[in-house]
Each structure stands twice: as C-alpha cells, then as structure tokens.
Specification:
The longest helix has 23 residues, at 368-390. This protein has ten helices and 25 strands. The chain has two domains: 2-103 and 246-318, FAD/NAD(P)-binding domain (3-Layer(bba) Sandwich); 105-242, FAD/NAD(P)-binding domain. The strands form eight sheets. It has a five-stranded parallel beta sheet, with helices on one face. Helix content is 29%, strand content 26%. β1 (2-3), α1 and β2 (26-29) form a beta-alpha-beta unit. By secondary structure, the protein is an alpha/beta fold.
Length: 392
Amino acid sequence: MVIGGGFGGASAARSLRRVAPDIRVTLVTDAPEFSTCPFSNLVIAGLREISEITFSYDALRAEGVEVRVDPAAALAPDRREVVLQSGDRLAYDRAIVSPGIDFVWDALPGGNPGMAASLPHAWKAGAQTLMLRDQIQAMPEGGTVIIAPPDNPFRCPPGPYERASLVAHYLSQHNPSAKVLIVDGKNQFSKQSLFTEGWEALYPGMISFVPFSDHGGLSAIDAGARRIETYFESFEADVINLIPPQSAASIVRDAGLTGTGLWCEIDGLTFESREAEHVHVIGDAAIVGDMPKSGFSASTQGKACAHAVAALLAQRTPERAYLMNTCYSLVGPEYGISVAGVYRSETGNNRLSSLPDSGGTSEAGDLPQLRRDEADYARGWYANITQELFGA
C-alpha cells in the first residue's frame, strides 16, 4: 500500500513493482492527475502552462500498480488498515506513506484557510498556482508583490526565492517599475549568496529582502486590504503570496505518527516510522536526517524505501542505500543555480547523514555560460524525473 501520488509515492509504487513484481501494489491518491510543485514557479511567471507540469497515473497502471483515486481519510496502524473517503477499507502488510504537507494556519496571527482565497500560498500546485499568476499579471503598473515565506522547516527551502526571481523576470518584461519584497520568517535562506548575486545581475533594485530581525515577525494580516503588520513595520502590496508554516499532513498526525511534534521521525535505513511498525514515511512529511524537503529527495527516498520494503516482506535484511538530492533553482530562464548532496544512514542509529566531501553548491561569480548550462540541467532534470515517475 502506498499513500500519496506525488514524487515520493509515485517513485515508491513504481520502484516496488519493478524490484518485487510478485507484490501487489496499490497507490491511493486524492486526484486523477498530479501537478508538480517543481517548475510551478515557471507557470506563475508565465513561462509554462499548468498542463505542462500536470501528469496522469496511466504509466503506473500500465506497470501493474492499482491506482485508487479516493483520498485516504484515516490510517489505522494497529489494524494495518487504511480508510478511504468513500468508506472503503484497505488492508496492508506494509504501508509507504508520502502524504506531503498541511498548513499550520493558527501559527499566523488571525490565520485561517480562508486567507488563501485572496492571499494565495501556491505551495500546493494547481488552482493556487494559477490564482497567483493571474494576480501578478493583473497588477497595476509600478505595483508591489510581497512574498512571505515561513521559518524552517518547510517544503522546498529555495522555492520562495526562485519564485521571487521568476516573478521579477515576468515583471521586468511586463511591469518594469514594479517591486518584489520578501518579508521573511528567518534571517537567512538556502543558496542566499547565489540568489542575491543573480538578482543584482538580472533585476537590479527590483527585489528586496527583509529578514526576520528587521521586522520581528508577523503581528496582523489584513487580507482584504492586502496588508501585513509586523512588530516593527507595516507592509502593503497589490499581491501577497503568503506561505504559511507547515507540518506533516493530517493523516499521519491523526494516526500519531508525528508523536508530540509536527513531523514524522523515521528509521533512516528502512524509513519505518518510529511511532508505528509496518508504516514507512517518506517525502516532505518525514524528518529524514540531513536531507531537505524536496521533490528529488522524495523520489530517491521512494526508491530506497521500496527496496527496503521488498527486503522486509521477503524476510531479508535491507541494505544501506546511498541517497542523492540535487536542487536546481532558476533565477532567470537562462540562469540556473544548484545545490547537491549525498546521504547514507549511519551504522548504529540509522540517521541519514551527509557523506563527507559530497555535494556542494554552484560556483559563485560572473560565469554566464555556467548559469546557462545549469538552466539547461534544470530543464533536463525535470524532464527526466517526470518521465521516470509518470511517463510511459
């Protein structure tokens, strides 16, 4: 049983069918298609259509995965059972759970899900992506876009800054006197020096970063007036991209898999939950040692978890896998930067840790050909991974 049809779930389901074709694999998902968060910033910037980042599960069905489009409503580890929204109950020997994130609205002042109707988060790709795109395109000349990222941890740490970059690219073409203001929930962010170097090169004076120490945190949000108050300053904008704090999805929280916290602790060798036997948690919902919450991380975890589950079902000892993550960010359509890492579970505690001297970030400096190459690598990575997970 696999719950969740994103990068982690699709990877786990497809990999499990390939490494153990005698095992029955059922993928439970809440929609017939999946729109990826990676490359959704290109849709917001008008550089791709939503259809270009949306995929069906036909290829998984063709490989023998049973796909149930019926949201998982509850997980009962004590009975090894999943209850679907329709009321159907599915038993499992082992469950691989990749449910993604939910938003912690009450961590915001006056926060509630209704805020997203006017202040889109666009942190789950689909309708919210299009809403934010349309608001930016309708913005008056010389207007302001606020992007308000949360404190760590959250899905895709470099994502808000790639978004700021690509929104600035759109504005530089269509509304060059507009501004992008990042009112951040932290003082530093992923690949910060590389992003700021790119902003100075491509969009001088258009993007401003306001760290947490300069504003003290959000104290009030007026969705109707498109205004956010902080303890030191008030900010108004024509468009506010409010990205709330996050947690593991409710299905794993309700099942007790997060313990007393917001995320699922797992064994880094098998991805089995520390709170429940026979349940393996991967992707954004899990605390996976040094690995960041990214689509590529989830996909590599899905493969490693599939091998571990196949071994356990065959009563074999799982092998220690090497896992990799590469995160590309587009500062402009032809300006890419990246960070990469390699990870392995430690002997003794099974924590997934970075291997010494592995990975790293893009080289800094005026390197136009490298930036173009990395933009090409980003597009190639996306084409390859979506083909691997969702393609024929």
